[in-house]
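Mods, move this if it's the wrong board.
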Amino acid sequence: MVKFFKNLRALGSGRFQPWSTILITVIVSLGLLMGSEALILALRYAGFHPLEVYGTGNKYLEQRLNQLDVFYKENGPARYLIIGNSKVGQGVDAELVSCAYKEVTGSPLSCVNFGFGGNTSEFLPVIFRILEEDYAPEIFVLDLIGPYQMNTFPHGKSQWLQYRSGNFSISGWMIEHFHFMRVFLRMRHWMEQPLEDYLLKAAVRDRGQLRDIGFSAERKQELLKKEIAAREDEEIFRAGRDKKLETSLAEEKSYPQVVDLVGKEKLIFFEMPLSFRVTRTLGDYGYRSERSEELSSKYGIPLIRMPDPKALPVESWMRDGMHMEREGISAFSTWLGRALAELEQPLLRRDTQE
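Not the wrong board. Structure tokens:
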């Protein structure tokens, strides 16, 4: 310490050596960094969670990571973590799932929606590993229908995701271990990408749900007529049994990896509905449906499927027919909560008898 202050005096007299400048710079920098980290930790302890960015390049994933981080700090591991793409992110209301579950069991369900836009088939094993290692939920509830896109999320460019995949880098290590680094990335995002910052803010504001751009009353009536007509097609859920599109083939590689990563005892499969008009044109829906049953049977993992999708209101869908509006979100989330509860009832009865 005495030598440090001598160097400071030397700095004022102009007689210090170059190595002294480096030493002082390093010490001051470390002090600032540790002070920043301590400040952020104090804020988090007080219940204020600054928005942190991991540098993944996916605003919906960033929002879900922040949401789950806060949930985990306040509640511990979630009982159920619901995984999927933007269809799940938009279509599942975790609070409604919990309320419907409570109606059957008498107890609320600790669950978090981790569906997000850009969740691709090749990324599924990556995010499952991170979630299992960091947040250890009791059960993962995975949507098998998808369809999951391919190669639309450049996760290979993220230093943090590369670090979590076993490729060491200083920046990836710092993002993983220091809150101040993630807050810094948030500030840098604001400074370097001001035109895109509003997208991140919107994802955080909407808790990962999508906002429909809307359509005219005439267009809405036209789509409702198509939806009603598609519901009258008796072959709609059986078509395409022999087809295997490129996206479904990619999913076939990912699902077994997910099972190997977390174990079949920690998984429940479910199918997130599509509008009837989209189901009719998907091309391989029949194949996807049969594949769900085969995977469930092969691994002994429960499969939850709506017995009659016509129970969903006709007005359930956004213009694209893939993502749900409020009517559909409410109906499906309520059904899902009850289905999860009913799935557990035989297990609860068996434990009681034993």
